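To: structure subgroup
Subject: Chain for Friday's discussion

All,

I'm putting the inputs and outputs inline so they're searchable in the archive.
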Amino acid sequence: MSKSFRLEVFTPSNNFYSGEIEEVVITTPLGKEAFMADHSYVCKLLDVGELWIRERGASTGDWKIASAAGGFIDVKEDIVIYTDAIEWDKGPEKRKSRIAK
């Protein structure tokens, strides 16, 4: 099992997500980037795009997927993402089709 860390995702109006995860994949202006436990400290801009979250204990292909409207990510011991707007992708069919690609 991989090491886990805490992820918090905030919008101006609420805490969208809070939990222990093993990996998060974000969309930056330069493309997709993944972060796992013990990553170097970094602060990066987010572009409009997908946010993939693999929770602690989840299988390799079991991801929660959301669409975010940009913002930034602050990576330290834990990771905090700030975004103007975010929502979960709807339906298992959409998630399966993206994982299969």
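Points worth raising on Friday:
The mean pLDDT is 90.
The beta strands are 5-10, 15-28, 31-36, 42-55, 64-75, 79-82, 86-88.

D.
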